[in-house]
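Known limitations

Structure tokens in this collection are predictions and should be treated as such. Users comparing against experimental data should check residue numbering before alignment. To illustrate the layout, the record for GNAT family protein is reproduced below. The input appears on top and the generated tokens appear beneath it.
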Amino acid sequence: MKHHHWPLYGLRVRTPRLELRLPDLELLDELASVAADGVHAPDTMPFTVPWSDGPPAERGRAVFRHVLSTIANWADDDWALSLAVLHEGRVVGRQDVMARHFAVTGVVETGSWLGLAHQGRGIGTEMRAAALHLAFAGLGARTAVSAAMTDNPRSLGVSRRLGYLPDGLETAALRGAPVTLQRLRLERARWEEHRTARVTLEGLDECRAEFGG
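Generated tokens:
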């Protein structure tokens, strides 16, 4: 199917186990249901924007509306690509790649979440590796950055396995209280040294201009 007016719907990022794609309405509904079922233990909050605090129906609606907003607000110098992650044909989580003034800076930021039922199986590492391949090999990024709370060992472990290096600490506000974030940075040369996942891209040429690169 040709996506003449929004070619990003034709983009596919594939690893041996996963497919990442911009969700159509049917897949977006599945993604919202995964969020509604839970993405972290109720006594933790890994996000500085606590969108997952609410009851299941609110979590699902928040994800549904947010992904639609990334499409509506897309600009080639300020974009957020929110990809549904599919494992064995089922949506299991979401992987974001974001940038501002990418043509100038060459810097992307990543963020993600994975449904509770799908955690602990290496999927989080594989989907981030897919996003990094899209950024570095596909779009020609120079740097990828991320951040995680210092008490979030799973996220920090994913970054460490993929070659990120610590890039200082910062303080953020969460529910009216301060929390400490570990900033992380991955330069292109170090990504080349640590890349192990086999990743293929499909449909990028048709939507390359949307990224402002």
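For this record: Residues 56-72 form the longest helix (17 residues). Helices lie at 25-36, 56-72, 102-105, 123-138, 153-161, 188-194, 204-207. Please report discrepancies through the issue tracker.
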